[in-house]
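quick q for whoever's on today - can somebody do inverse folding on this one?? i tried earlier but teh output was garbage lol. tokens:
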């Protein structure tokens, strides 16, 4: 089995961007978060994080509505992707989209199970959601 390229996943939120990176054996690991500011700065911080983790691709969670439709959050996420593409060359960093429905709810449940109060640690929710987005993406590529 060929080794998969290293990836960084993003859970785009209004206040933070949760980060996760792929590890050995298809693992998904938390990689911190970025506090949102201006779009250009956020994009640069994502690029810097990708370089720091030696990622070859970025998986961006796309927040479709629960019935799978495109809402304002999807438009904002795709705007972020456009800004990311304008800032990097396609050859240096591949960009992928992944449906992120229910990842925040699932992340909150996982954190509660581990004794963390999601309402008190929203950054952990964002990081865990990014891990789930990355896990979904990696699983979808295995099929």
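ok took a stab at it. sequence:
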């Amino acid at each position: 089995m060929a080794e998969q390229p290293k990836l960084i996943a993003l859970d785009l939120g209004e206040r933070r961007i949760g980060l996760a990176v792929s590890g050995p054996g298809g693992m998904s690991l938390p990689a911190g978060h970025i506090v949102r500011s201006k779009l250009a700065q956020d994009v640069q911080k994502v690029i810097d994080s990708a370089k720091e983790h030696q990622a070859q691709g970025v998986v961006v969670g796309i927040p479709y509505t629960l019935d799978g439709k495109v809402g304002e959050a999807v438009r904002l996420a795709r705007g972020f992707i456009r800004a990311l593409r304008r800032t990097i060359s396609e050859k240096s960093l591949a960009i992928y989209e992944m449906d992120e429905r229910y990842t925040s709810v699932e992340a909150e449940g996982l954190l509660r199970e581990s004794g963390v109060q999601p309402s008190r640690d929203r950054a952990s929710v964002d990081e865990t959601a990014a891990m789930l987005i990355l896990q979904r993406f990696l699983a979808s590529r295995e099929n």
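fwiw The chain has one domain: 7-142. also The first strand starts at residue 7 and ends at 12. so keep that in mind when u check it
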